[in-house]
Write a structure and sequence with these properties.
Strand order of the largest sheet: 1-2-7-6-3-5-4
Helix content: 40-55%
Oligomer: single chain
Number of strands: 7
CATH architecture: 3-Layer(aba) Sandwich
Number of helices: 5
Structural class: alpha/beta
Number of domains: 1
Order of helices and strands: EEEHHEEHEHEH
Radius of gyration: 15 Å
Bound molecules: ligand AR6
């Protein structure tokens, strides 16, 4: 399952898969504020990346304290095909009235800004916040894609590819449907 569209000079790709095997320069981790492995996509990234990822994340945690929601930091990719892991903290869903949409958008923006700052050209995102953190995937997909679209419009031609790696058929369909809604708005 794969969907691709050109956004200026940047390719936007939606696909179903496991983010830990993606051969991009940076993959994004949906981390917890302590930057510990945890479960879900984060557990998988720490397992596949190995101790280099977990140790570097722990060192960052010691040096700068807990990450706030929407912030992002970068570590090595360790044993992953990706050279880097960008760790961000998405919002926990509390019904949508606690600033969740803006915080989710901020998490995506922080990752994209960090990628640009580091000269990273290809980046893959998981569906941040839609697992353990409970964000409804239809709404999260729309925010994720809108945020990426407006970032690329504001920073044209810098990134080569932005990829969303969705873990299930249903998540892939939710992102594809969200893209159709957004695309229809032009
Ligand atoms: N590749 C791509 N997506 C994946 C993978 C994978 N290998 N594994 C799971 N997903 P979640 P959150 C999907 O729960 O909701 C952690 O414990 C998953 O199906 O990983 O942002 C952290 O430590 C879902 O669609 O992250 C935090 O405490 C999406 O990734 C907390 O969970 C996100 O699900 C973060 O919660």
């Amino acid at each position: 399952m794969r969907f691709e569209v050109d956004m200026g000079k940047t390719k936007l790709v939606l696909l179903k898969g496991d983010i830990t095997v993606e051969a991009v320069e940076a993959i994004v981790n949906s981390a917890n504020p302590e930057l510990t492995p945890g479960g879900g996509v984060s557990g998988a990234i720490h397992r596949a990346g190995g101790p280099q990822v977990t140790d570097e994340a722990a060192r960052i945690r010691r040096e700068r304290g807990r990450l706030r929601t929407g912030e992002a930091v970068i570590t090595t990719g360790g044993n992953l095909p990706a050279k880097w892991v960008i760790h961000t903290v998405g919002p926990v869903w509390h019904g949508g009235t606690k600033g969740e949409p803006e915080l989710l958008a901020k998490a995506y923006r922080s990752c994209l800004a960090l990628a640009v700052e580091k000269g990273i050209k290809t980046i893959a995102f998981p569906s941040i916040s839609t697992g353990v953190y409970g964000y409804p995937v239809d709404q999260a997909a729309e925010i994720a894609l809108r945020t990426v679209k407006s970032f690329l419009e504001g920073n044209p031609g810098i990134l080569k590819e932005v990829r969303f790696v969705l873990f299930s058929d249903a998540d892939f369909e939710a992102y594809r449907a969200a893209w159709k809604r957004i695309g229809a708005e032009g």
